[in-house]
Every structure is written in C-alpha cells, then in structure tokens.
Amino acid sequence: xxxxxxCGCNYxxxxxxxxxxxxxxxxxxxxxxxxxxxxxxxEAGPIQIFVSNHLIPDEMEFQYGDMPNYTTSDGSxxxxxxxxxxxxxxGTRFCIGTxxxxxxxxxxxxxxx
Length: 113
Description:
- The protein has no helices and eleven strands.
- By secondary structure, the protein is mainly beta.
- The protein has one domain (3-107): CATH 2.40.50.140.
- The strands form three sheets. It has a five-stranded mixed beta barrel with strand order 3-4-5-10-9. A three-stranded antiparallel beta sheet has the order 6-7-8, with no helix packed on it.
C-alpha cells in the first residue's frame, strides 16, 4: 500500500501529522500563506499546497491592495495571509487542494481577531 505523510496541523505548540492513504482525500486545517490572482498557497509542515482559483467557490473574487485576498461579494468571508482554512487535498503528486466543497473554507480570519 502506497501512503505518504501529507498533512501537518498545528495543535498548540506541537505538530500533528496525519498519515494519508493515496486512495482517499484528506481534509486539513491549514493557514493560508500567499494569496495570488491564480489561487493561494498554504503550508502543511514541509509541504506547500496550491489551491487554484478554479477550486475556490465562485462567489469569492480576488482583491488587490496592501493585503491581497479573496473576498465574497458581501465581504463576510475573506481569505488572506494567515487566514485558517479547511481544505481538502485532492492531488498528492503536486499537492493540489480545494475549498470548493461542503464544510470547507475559512475558519479564522486574522483581520477580525
């Protein structure tokens, strides 16, 4: 059975690594690192995961400015640097993730904290 370590989630001061079998998708709680027009990057330990703008919900649009982000049209949800998101890893060869599914998306917005 082929399996790899793909998901590192921060619980307090210790890292929790989740063993992922390549046959199943894994959902992780990961902070957003770099939002760009083509999507955003998130890091899970040593692994960098890319979430394409095609895998972000359609109602979210990229906003330029001092703090680039993805925002809903009403401004209630924002993905920016250090926002915590639930994402699902859908490809382990190039570490591709998605937030365009049920129960995925922003958990914590640092701007509101």
